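Per your request, structure below.
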């Protein structure tokens, strides 16, 4: 299964059987340990809400050979595991000490705070993450808080909250930091996690961009390459606050021009709609979010209309036609993107 091929389509539903086949054909168990730091648990809820395919069903109902045991043992998961208290602590330690067959995958939700702000059992969360990162085969940072710091890392951050990668570098685990697969968005998208898990279980490392995000999900700019409202932008038709008329959301603060994620095609809520259908893109997939150019949310981006020194109102009339659009896209990308490194084929 090629992650890019499956991730590139609007819905993963047609690939349900392929995804299930990957899990069914896995030769060994997969031991998942899902830790929560500074988080609202929205990413766990988002993952659990995935409807078709039902991820929890996939992870628990497909068995290894005739063993009767599920292919993916959620050895521990803060939000959904039935165990709690000392039994939960025991399960995390069992996962750390497990040396039998099977791959270990660590999923971290939430950002990393300074010592003393987050504890599980008698141990600081930072120590748990260090111990788990040390013994795992793969690390996934699910959601913007874990991937880039997210809301806990925003201006006014009093707990020293940082991303998982920054934390691992801070404690000298640079090699582990390099391996982290970042799946930002607030909350994380269940398709991205399910497909990344399926890919890792098959032994395929996804191709990542400069921010360790799989290119398959974060390779395209929302405004330049995907947004269905782009024709309005090109014709200078803009929606305003409190109005339901059609139009591009640029003037009410849409951050699609500086955001790379596949939301317009993948969509949310069982693939029915995405943020711009109901308001604006606030740019939650980007490392600087929610500060810098991403805040305040309902503030117009200052930079885009000057890309070609042409006022945004006249952008469309000046650039009608495929050739002109291509020039604009190229110029926009050049001005707004950070150069992405090619890291080989998936
Ligand atoms: S500014 Fe936002 S709504 Fe308008 S075309 Fe770009 S991404 Fe779409
Ligand atoms: S459309 Fe924008 S704000 Fe909405 S989930 Fe995607 S990246 Fe985040």
């Amino acid at each position: 299964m090629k992650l890019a091929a499956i991730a590139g389509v609007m819905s993963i539903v047609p690939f349900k059987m392929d995804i299930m086949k990957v899990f069914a054909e896995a030769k060994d168990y997969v031991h998942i340990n899902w830790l929560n730091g500074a988080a609202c648990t929205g990413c766990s809820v988002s993952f659990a809400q995935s409807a078709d395919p039902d991820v929890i069903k996939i992870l628990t109902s497909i068995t290894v050979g005739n063993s009767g045991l599920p292919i993916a043992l959620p050895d521990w998961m803060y939000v959904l595991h039935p165990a709690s208290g000392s039994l939960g602590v025991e399960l995390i330690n069992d996962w750390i000490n497990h040396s039998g067959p099977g791959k270990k995958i660590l999923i971290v939700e939430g950002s990393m705070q300074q010592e003393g702000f987050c504890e599980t059992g008698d141990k600081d969360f930072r120590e748990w993450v260090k111990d788990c990162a040390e013994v795992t085969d793969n690390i996934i940072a699910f959601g913007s808080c874990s991937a880039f710091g997210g809301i806990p890392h925003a201006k006014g951050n009093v707990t020293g909250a940082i991303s998982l990668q920054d934390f691992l570098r801070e404690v000298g685990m640079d090699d582990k930091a390099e391996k982290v697969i970042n799946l930002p968005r607030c909350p994380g998208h269940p398709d991205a996690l399910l497909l990344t898990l399926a890919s890792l279980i098959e032994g395929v490392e996804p191709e990542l961009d400069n921010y360790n995000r799989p290119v398959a999900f974060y390779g395209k700019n929302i405004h330049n390459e995907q947004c269905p409202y782009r024709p309005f932008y090109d014709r200078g038709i803009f929606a305003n606050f409190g109005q339901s008329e059609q139009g591009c959301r640029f003037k009410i603060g849409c951050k699609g021009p500086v955001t790379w994620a596949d939301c317009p095609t993948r969509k949310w809520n069982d693939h029915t709609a995405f943020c711009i259908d109901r308001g604006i893109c606030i740019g939650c997939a980007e490392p600087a979010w929610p500060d810098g150019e991403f805040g305040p949310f309902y503030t117009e981006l200052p930079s885009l209309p000057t890309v070609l020194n042409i006022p945004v109102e006249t952008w469309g009339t000046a650039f009608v036609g495929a050739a002109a659009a291509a020039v604009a896209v190229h110029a926009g990308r050049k001005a707004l993107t950070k150069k992405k490194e090619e890291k080989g084929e998936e």
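Residues 305-346 have pLDDT under 50 and may be disordered.

Regards,
D.
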